[in-house]
User: Fold this.
Amino acid sequence: MNTSKLVSLQILASMIKDGDSLGLGGSLLHRGPFALVRELIRSGRRHLEIIKASPGYDIDILCRAGSVAKARCGIVAMEGQFGFAPWYRKAVENGVLELEEHACATLAAGLRAAAFGVPFQPVAGVHGSDIAKLNNWACISDPYGSGKDCWVIPPIRPDIAVIHAAEATLAGDVRVYGTPHWDRLLTRAAKCVLVTTERLVDEALFAERPEWTLVPRFMTDAVAVVPRGAWPGSCLPFYGVDFQGIESYLANPGEDFLRTHLQNAPETRPEDASMD
Assistant:
């Protein structure tokens, strides 16, 4: 008999404590666990570490709320038409946020080392960059005698991975549509996996296409159903990016707007959370 892993969004957020390192799923404005991020702000979380190859709105609003102390990131942006993430940039410039800067490939290599249980992971493309020196990464010679040197990245193991999915079962099987971004790797590297999902579906639907399962139930610690949980980003095929919502977020810098933004998000208004 399968045990249900279904919890509320509030309980899911309560499983994350001050000071935890969080690996956030998705990429830029696409299929990020943004409802959970907002719930962490409402819950008053502080001193979090964010691990994500390509964050955007998620790390920016956490910096805006003063919830983040450290980040390990590659590119950080609000997508091409919106440019840099302004509150993230301000936090780095003011020394409020301790940044371990990565290329997307080096962060993925660190996650892969953690997932594989090895002390480091080789990575290409670092030669000529100061990132390796800044992070004190090691460069080793090829033990098989090619004469080439290779940079190696130590493990990056988040305390908790949080991803937003298209569908899940009560038992915790999870799938997405389209690219998984870094979510497969992230969930294998982390110590704990939490999931928000657009909807619950019957296990029989997963059994029909088992190859679509991104995270199997034995890896999932808890699931919360949060329709439009990636707003104002996208979760295809259900809805795209709310560009007007992003523009409003960026155009209103005051604390009053942040409170309003959190109050009016879809997860606070279940009657408005239906999928497009």
